[in-house]
Specification:
Layout (H helix, E strand, L loop, with lengths): L6 H10 L10 E5 L8 H15 L6 E4 L10 H7 L4 E5 L8 H7 L7 H10 L2 H9 L4 E10 L4 E3 L13 E3 L3 H8 L3 E3 L6 H6 L5 E2 L4 H7 L7 E4 L6 E9 H5 L3 H19 L3 H13 L3 E4 L2 H21 L1 H24 L8
Parallel strand pairs: 1-2, 1-3, 6-7, 6-8, 9-11
Antiparallel strand pairs: 3-10, 4-10, 5-8, 5-9
Length: 349
């Protein structure tokens, strides 16, 4: 499934003025993120703003922060049932219901942002994502692509797998199962509860998002180490989800406007990353945080455990297996091109 819409086409669609059945007033959107949270929450705000502009104010959504309409980890069920008509989420949050979306949300040691984006938008990604949600009466628009995240915040040094034994760690997605396999005890905690959980010793460490987002939750004030790389999420998808019955109330023209706004939001998410993160990292270091890389020995163990977890899940879930094979094949094909185009580092690097 591919969605392409030029600027001229957008203008033509707007001029048609076809009103969908569901766009007479603002529709409430339940987010898994805090209202206007840097980058993550702001991505949803950008999407609904662009959608309103493209439709000349006819299609309007209002995003509510985590917990304002429903608890953050109940957003998918609320959209599925129609209790809330739309949501803004991280795709991988719903892996307990649909294992395949744990892989679509983020694949440990998986694709970089460019490869993940091409798989989603010109490969089989969109088709597989829609198929995963179809039984739940939900349509998903993957509209925000997050670049590689840090491995997380810790109050202990990490030298090898022994340091993971018994470690109480907040992590989302398949990465949690990988760390459990290596002896950690992981849990999924909503973003708004992370600071208190770490401060009060309920957990020993956590991962959440990019540095610019992590700064907003204040954990740099109570954690000693910030480890890289983000092996668990080399790239990850946030999405706008909408109840199928609501989606079907829009005309085909207006549905295309959703997709146009979605693609713009993906681009916006990718052009506001690297430089901002470096500035924040310098700030963390000024506050006494040690920014480090995980030792190669530990990364190798995490990679092997990731392979085992993914392959075991693929053997028990048909759609997960199909997603895995599709992503793996896409990565292999693109790597041929990237290898040919690889340039040596300059002396300055």
């Amino acid at each position: 499934m591919k969605r392409f819409l030029s600027a001229a086409s957008c203008a033509a669609l707007v001029s048609v003025g076809v009103l969908g059945a569901a766009n007479a007033q603002s529709i409430e959107v339940a987010s898994t993120f805090a209202k206007n949270q840097p980058y993550l929450g702001e991505g949803g705000e950008f999407f609904v703003s662009r959608l309103s502009e493209l439709s000349e104010g006819r299609i309007n959504f209002e995003i509510y922060g985590a917990g304002e309409l429903v608890p953050p980890f109940e957003v998918f069920d609320a959209v599925s049932s129609g209790a809330v008509r739309a949501g803004w989420d991280w795709v991988g949050y719903w892996a307990d219901r649909i294992p395949a979306v744990g892989l679509i949300g983020a694949m440990p040691f998986g694709p970089d942002p460019l490869t993940f984006m091409s798989w989603m938008w010109s490969g089989e990604g969109l088709e597989l994502l829609q198929r995963a949600y179809e039984p739940h009466n939900v349509v998903a628009l993957p509209c925000h692509l997050t670049a590689a995240e840090p491995a997380g915040w810790f109050n202990v040094e990490l030298n090898n797998t022994a340091d993971l034994q018994g470690l109480r760690f907040r992590i989302s997605g398949l990465g949690g199962r990988v760390m459990d396999r290596l002896g950690a005890s992981t849990s999924l905690i909503a973003g708004g509860e992370l600071y208190v959980s770490l401060e009060r010793g309920r957990i020993d460490g956590l991962e959440f998002s990019l540095p610019v987002v992590d700064r907003s939750i204040g954990v740099y004030q109570i954690a000693s180490y910030y480890y890289f790389p983000g092996w668990h999420q080399p790239a990850s998808w946030n999405s706008f989800i909408i109840n199928r019955d609501v989606w079907d109330g829009y005309s085909e023209h207006d549905q295309e406007l959703f997709w146009a706004a979605c693609r713009e939001t993906v681009m916006n998410s990718l052009i506001t990353v690297a430089a901002d993160q470096v500035e924040v990292l310098r700030y963390f270091e000024e506050q006494g945080v040690e920014v480090r890389r995980l030792p190669d020995e530990l990364l190798e163990a995490l990679q092997e455990a990731s392979r085992e977890v993914i392959e075991e899940t693929a053997a028990t879930d048909e759609l997960f297996r199909e997603v895995y094979e599709s992503l793996r094949d896409h990565m292999e094909v693109e790597q041929v091109w990237f290898n040919l185009q690889h340039l040596p580092r300059t002396a300055a690097e």
